[in-house]
Amino acid sequence: MEFSTSSNLSFFFLLLCVSIILLLSEGQQSYVNNKQLDCYNNYSVTDGFLCNGPQRCNSYLAFRSTPLYDSPAIIAYLLGSEASAIAQINNISDVNKIPTDTQILVPVNCSCSATFYQHNTSYTLKDASETYFTVANNTFQGLTTCQALMHQNPYDSRNLSVDSQLLVPLRCACPSRNQTANGVRFLLTDLVDWGDSISSIAQTFGVDEQSIYDANGLSWNSLIYPFTPLLVPLKTEPTKIPTTQSPAPSISPPVEPSIVPESNKSSKKWVFIAVGIGAALILLALSGFLIWFFRLRSQRGKPLPPQGKRLPESVNYTAAASENYSGSVSSQGLRNVVESLTLYKFEELQKATGFFSEAHRIKGSVYHGAIKGDTAAIKRMRGDVSNEITILKQISHSHVIRLSGFCVHEGNTYLVYEFAENGSLSECLHEKSYRNSSCLGWKQRIQIAYDVADGLNYLHNYTNPPYIHKDLKSTNILLDRNFRAKIANFGLARTVENQDEGGLQLTRHVVGTQGYMAPEYLENGVVTPKLDVFTFGVVILELLSGREAASGDEKKGELLLSASIEQVLEGENVREKLRGFIDPSLRHEYPLDLAFSMAQLAKNCVAHDLNSRPTMAEVFMSLSKILSSSLDWDPSDELEHSRSLGHGR
Ligand SMILES: *[C@@H]1O[C@H](CO)[C@@H](O)[C@H](O)[C@H]1NC(C)=O
Ligand SMILES: *[C@@H]1O[C@H](CO)[C@@H](O)[C@H](O)[C@H]1NC(C)=O
Ligand SMILES: *[C@@H]1O[C@H](CO)[C@@H](O)[C@H](O)[C@H]1NC(C)=O
Ligand SMILES: *[C@@H]1O[C@H](CO)[C@@H](O)[C@H](O)[C@H]1NC(C)=O
Ligand SMILES: *[C@@H]1O[C@H](CO)[C@@H](O)[C@H](O)[C@H]1NC(C)=O
Ligand SMILES: *[C@@H]1O[C@H](CO)[C@@H](O)[C@H](O)[C@H]1NC(C)=O
Ligand SMILES: *[C@@H]1O[C@H](CO)[C@@H](O)[C@H](O)[C@H]1NC(C)=O
C-alpha cells in the first residue's frame, strides 16, 4: 500500500494549496475543487453543501442526457424527480427521446439532513465493474461524490455487488439568508463540462457572473474542473437550457492563472478550466491510480466501461409477493419495488413477444412474453404514462399489479407487468366463453372482493402520499393463476390532497366509465376517496349478480347496476328478490345470509350521498368478516337447505 500513501501525500500537498486559496475567499458554499476524485479521504466539501438556510426548498439539477437516460420518464426515475415536471420545464414531451448530450433541467426537493443539503434517490448496481466512483462520476455525472456515497451506504467499497441498492445523496442547496436578501430564489446544481468557464455558465443561465463566484466561494483565480457541480443562483424559475454544441476537449496551452486578462475586457474576471499541463498531469496520475485501485478491487482487469454501454442485464422479476392476508403491507417490499424497476431494451421486448406478433397479443396493445423465463404482460402506451410509472414504482402490494420495468422506444412507452393468467374479472363474469368453462364460485368471488378492498384500503390509507384509483372497474381487476385479484391501470389515479377536508378536490375534466361513476363526480367533478368506494360497491354488485355495471337497452334506456340494489333490499320479500338478483350461474350454491350482508355492504357503498358511504377501511373490515364466514361455510349444507326448502313448497 506504499503506492496509495505516496499518492495521498502528493494529493495532500495539492489540497493544502487549494485550501489556502479557498480560505481567502468568503463564500456561501464551497466548491468541491476536484476532491471528489480522492475517494479514500474525507473532506467536508465532498459530503454535500452545508445547511446554511431553510430546512428544505425547491431546487434544480442540470443533467446531460445519455443514450441510456434519454427521456423525462427515465431521468425522473434515476434522479427521483417527476417526469411531467421535467417535461414541462424543458418544453419536451414525457416520453420522447432526448438527443444525447442535451442539458436537461431536473426539479427536485432539496432538504437538510443533519449538516448537509441533499436530495435522496436510489440506485441499484447493475454491473460488476461499477464502483462508488463510477456511480458518482459516470452514472450521476458528478451530482454526487464517492465520499458521500460511501458515508451513507453500508457497503464496503471493496464489497459492492450487482443488485446492491445504494442510497444516492444528490448535491443541492437552498439559498442562504444573504442570497435570499439579494433576490435569489433557487439554487441550481450545474455540472461543469469541458470548455466551460464561469462566464459561459453565467451566460447560459442569464445570471450575474459575480453571483456564481460568491455562491461557490470562488475567486477570479480559482480553477474549475470538468464533472464537478457548481451552484448557480437563480432569481426566477429556470427555463429550458438552450442547446449549445459543447466544444471537444481541446488541449490549449497552459494558462497561468495569475496572468490578469487583457485590460480591454477591463474588470472581467476569469476562471479557467483545468486543462493546463500541470493539472492534466495530476488528473492523469489520479485516474491512473483510481483505475489501478479499482482493477485490484474487482479483480477483473476490465477498464471502466463507457457510460452508454452499461445497459441493465439483470431482470428483477421475482415471484409475486406471498399471499398472506394482512402482511401485504411491508416497507421492505416497497424498497424492493422502488429499486427494482428495470429499464428494458426494446430488443429484449421484441424477442419476448415474437416482434409483437398476433400470437402474443392478449388484447389491444397488451402482449404476453417470456422475459428471462417468467411470463410478463407488456403494454404499449402512447402519450404521458409517467403517472402510472410514478405511482406503481412506489407501491408494493400483493393486490396491486406489479410493474417490473419499462422501455421507451420511438415515442411509445412499454410497461412490463406481472402476468395475470386468468385475465380480467370482467371477462370471467361477463364473457360467455369464460363462463361456461370456469364460473367463479361463491368463495372465489368473496375472496376477489376482499383482495380488491385490501388493495384500495392500502392505496387510500397506507401509501405516502395516499392515492385515489379513480378508474376501478371489473376490466381493471386482473386475476392470477389462483383467481386472486390485482388492481391494474393507474392511468387516471391521483394523489389525495386536502386531507383535512376529507380529501376533497374538484376537476373540470370528468373521465370514467359509464355505470361506475359516482354521482358527485359525474355532476360536479368532485374527487374524494369515496369515489373509489362507490365504484367498489358497483364491483361487488357485479360479483353478486354477474351483470354488467351498465346494460344498454334501446327502449328502456340505460340500466345502472348501482341503481338496482335499493329496490332489491327494500320492501317485502327481500329473500326472494335477492335470490332473483344473484347470478344464476351460482346455482343457489351460496349462503343467503352472507349474500345479504354483501348486498347490504354494496348498497352502502353506492349511496348517493358520499358522506353516507363507509370508508375503505370500514369496507375492508366488513369484508374480512364476510370472508371468514364464507370460508367456514360448507356448500353441501346450503345444498341440503335449499333442497329441503324446494321440497317444502
Ligand atoms: C472518514 O470518515 C468516516 C466517518 O465519517 C470514517 O469512518 C473513516 O475512517 C474516515 N476515513 C478516513 C480516511 O479518514
Ligand atoms: C416549446 O416547443 C414548441 C415546439 O415543440 C414551440 O413551438 C414553443 O414555442 C416552445 N415553447 C417555449 C416556451 O420554448
Ligand atoms: C416536492 O415535494 C412536494 C410536496 O412534498 C411535491 O408535491 C412535489 O411534487 C415535489 N417535487 C418534486 C420535483 O419531486
Ligand atoms: C435522505 O437520506 C438520509 C440518510 O442518508 C436521511 O437522513 C434523510 O432524512 C433523507 N432525506 C429525506 C428527505 O428523505
Ligand atoms: C467521469 O465521467 C465523465 C463522463 O461523465 C467521463 O468522461 C470521465 O472520463 C470520468 N472520469 C473518470 C476519471 O473516469
Ligand atoms: C462482504 O459482503 C458479505 C456478504 O454480502 C459479508 O458477509 C462480508 O462480511 C462483507 N465483507 C466486508 C469486508 O465488508
Ligand atoms: C452578502 O452578499 C453581499 C453581496 O452579494 C456580499 O458583499 C457580502 O459579503 C455577503 N455577506 C455575507 C455574510 O456573506
UniProtKB/TrEMBL annotation:
Keyword field contains Transmembrane: yes
InterPro entries for the chain: Kinase-like_dom_sf, LysM, LysM2_CERK1_LYK3_4_5, LysM3_LYK4_5, LysM_dom_sf, NFP_LYK_LysM1, Plant_RLK_LysM, Prot_kinase_dom
LysM domain sequence ranges: 188-232
Membrane topology of this protein: Single-pass membrane protein
Gene3D superfamilies found in the cross-reference section: LysM domain, Phosphorylase Kinase, domain 1, Transferase(Phosphotransferase) domain 1
The UniProt record lists the keyword Iron-sulfur: no
Annotated CDD domains: LysM
Coiled coil: none
Gene Ontology MF terms in the entry: ATP binding; protein kinase activity
Pfam families according to UniProt: LysM1_NFP_LYK (PF23446), LysM2_CERK1_LYK3_4_5 (PF23472), LysM3_LYK4_5 (PF23473), PK_Tyr_Ser-Thr (PF07714)
Alphabetic keyword roster: ATP-binding, Cell membrane, Disulfide bond, Membrane, Nucleotide-binding, Signal, Transmembrane, Transmembrane helix
Signal sequence residues: 1-27
Protein name per the record: Uncharacterized protein
Species this protein is from: Tetracentron sinense
Taxonomic lineage: Eukaryota, Viridiplantae, Streptophyta, Embryophyta, Tracheophyta
